[in-house]
Amino acid sequence: MIPSGTWASADGCESLRDLLDRLQSSKWTKKHDLSLDRPAVTALGPSSEYGYRFARTLRLKLDESAADTWDIDYSNGTVAITVGQQGLANLYQALADMKIGSGDYRIGTDDAWLWIWWYVELDA
Q1: C-alpha to C-alpha distance for 114 and 3, rounded to whole angstroms
Q2: Which percentage of the chain shows pLDDT scores above 90?
Q3: Dihedral sign, CA of 15, 17, 19, 22?
Q4: Model pLDDT for residues 93-112, shown as the tens digit of each residue
């Protein structure tokens, strides 16, 4: 069961895209930590191998030294995603898909992947 309120909204997708744009164009830093206002369920690898974790912080980091960089790590309540140019392009596409209600696929590598879920707006 996925806890309510863990889906990305269209505004959230735009906000994350804006953050990625700013990180990409920054002369100084290529990473940013986001505090999550409620714990987010994070699946790391095959559930039988790694299981699910609850994260309070999301760390995004751009690595421009290699185009194919892709890594996801979990430590002490922080999920850190490090991407190169191809991973960044995949994240942009995932945000575009979630914004229009598409998804249900994963991006990344076989040992470090991220599930992309669509946004479902429920009537209150």
Answers
A1: 18
A2: 22
A3: negative
A4: 988 888 887 877 788 887 77
Based on its alpha-carbon atoms, the radius of gyration of the chain, rounded to whole angstroms, reads 14
CB 7, CB 97: distance < 8 Å: no
List the structure tokens of 52: 């699910």
DSSP string, 61-97: EE-TT-TT-EEEEEETTEEEEEE-HHHHHHHHHHHHH
Q: Structure tokens of 7?
A: 């889906």
Question: What's the full length of the chain, in residues?
Answer: 124
pTM of the model: 0.76
Nearest-angstrom CA–CA distance, 59 and 79: 6
What whole-number distance in Å separates Cα of residue 60 and Cα of residue 82? 6
Instruction: Give the pLDDT confidence of 40-64 residue by residue, as tens digits.
Output: 555 555 554 556 667 888 899 999 8
Do the beta carbons of residue 88 and residue 24 sit within 8 Å? yes
Give residue 22's identity as a one-letter amino acid code: R
Place of tokens 């994260």: 55
DSSP state of 5: T
